[in-house]
Amino acid sequence: MTSITPKRVTTVTAMIPCYNAAQFIEEAIASTQQQTRPPDEIIVIDDCSTDGSGDIAERMGVRVLRTAVNGGGGAARNLGIREARGDVVAWLDADDFWEPHHLATVVGLLEQHPDASLAFSLVREFGDRSGIWAECLPAGSPCDALEACLHRCVVPHISVVVFLEALRNVGGYDESMRVGADYDIWLRLSAVHRFVCTHEITANWRQHDSQISGGSGGGGKLFAYWEMEYASRARFLSATQASGDLDRFRLVEALMIRVSQSHLMCAWWARDERQLAFHLERVPDVADARALRQRWRRRARMLHAARVWDAVRSSARAIVRTLTGGSSTTFGKVP
User: Fold this and answer.
1) What domains appear along the chain, each with residue ranges and CATH number?
2) What are phi and psi of 56, to 5 degrees?
């Protein structure tokens, strides 16, 4: 685990990739301009928008970069990484916005903890769905985030500040990925850099149908996102093996098996046959995972019986509630 050369953060580039976000981008840019700690530059990367998004950004006085072809979020972000002048990049999507103290809070974490290369806060979801992004890492101190990043995307782009040098050193974004670029790059960064976070909410993530991620919504989008995660993990495992560090490779193997166990268990308790089959099919093809795969194949055959048992248990509880007038008694505790 390494980090960039410790130093005080001096300059910040606020970076906003954009594609057809004319109805939202003014609010996003305004939130960067109203920071209590202003960014040193604001860049909008217009990925061939057809709705005048880039023109709106130019009228607001920010620097606009325009891609030659629509290459997706990864290509737009890489263009921004090549052109940024700040020591750190603070990401914001064109349909989201920051609280006024966002940069003061999150950039401040990097200044307080020079052994960390990436910092973030919690995120508030609003719009079609509301909620708070789940806490994935302990707050306040730099930590090794590898296991957390293998398990899930620890944070959306919009609350992250990261040293530009760190992004360049891992090769930037995989431009083939139209979704899940955040998961992939946080995973690669976590292998060589420490993360630090606060559980304070400083960024707002708009949930709406037109966003590419779909808010990581249900149905096919959810399975497509999971598919991307598994592909990223497989590439990461291969790269770790190619590095020749056998101890590191064995660690990543063990962590990936643990992640598979967790996903399988969640699918089991949801009694979701499709999810269970999906995750079982993607248990990593390594020797130590064979026992896990065999155990869960046997367990998957018991899913129908588990559903029947759930129905019996639910009926028993309903009968007890009726007989006791809804009061809580030990008879209601059906195992």
Assistant:
1) 12-211 (3.90.550.10), 219-304 (no CATH)
2) -60, -45
